[in-house]
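Researcher:
Attend to token order:
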Amino acid sequence: MTKDAFAIFLSGILAGTICFASAMIVSEMEPEMFSNLTLTSADLATLVAGFGGAVLGGGISWLLARQTANETRKRDEQARNEHDRTSLLQTILKVMQVSNGIYTIHRNIEGSVENAREQGAQGAPLWTMVHPVAGRTEIPKFDSSDFVPFAVSGRADLINRIIMISNRYEATESGFREYSERRLSFQDLAGPYTTLGPSDQHMTAFPEDVAAQAQMRAYELEQLITQVRDFANKDLEESKSLCSDIDKFAKAYLKGKGGFVSLGLDEVKQDVGIASAGH
């Protein structure tokens, strides 16, 4: 109950109390007291007007209290809807970041492989084709408030998938960053023993005392980038499916007022994957 409605309610109680007290006083009066009372037309009109005004005032007070309560409920509902909408859009933006991040890793690997094969590096180890990348990517973090719209709609499956794809992306991104650091370290190791051969190809010949160490590092690089590539390919498909399902959920949850998430991908032609907000 709002403050205005509560004040009107108290006024009604006060008026009712006064009427009840008056009735009790009248009931205790001797009948002879009324026999000597005479009411003129003016007095009767005043009495009727008084009671009529009281009834009319009470009705108006009730209507005002009801209107105030309805307006308060509407404002509360609008505030809740806006909060849920904001929460949903915030979650969608984070899912878009995850999807873009997965696609970026995918394209970094596949683009490097395509370029290497175009230059004749058919059958070469994967680690020799995939170039390292610099920089650190900020991983979006989800908290319980991000999942309120899904929870109230009974979509625990979407909550679980969002958490899973976020955790997998974090692991894949960490693995790719680790690969890049090790790849750069290997280049430092190979630098003194590398020369530029025909057709601008790098030729590396490790001396015997360094060859075993280089071979072990190369093996570790191959295992690491192969795993990262496998994760990125699988996560890319899941992120596309998840974005599609969240898009359908958002349209239904917000009563068809526009779509929000779509993941536009062209498998080998696009340089960047784009998850974009739509209408």
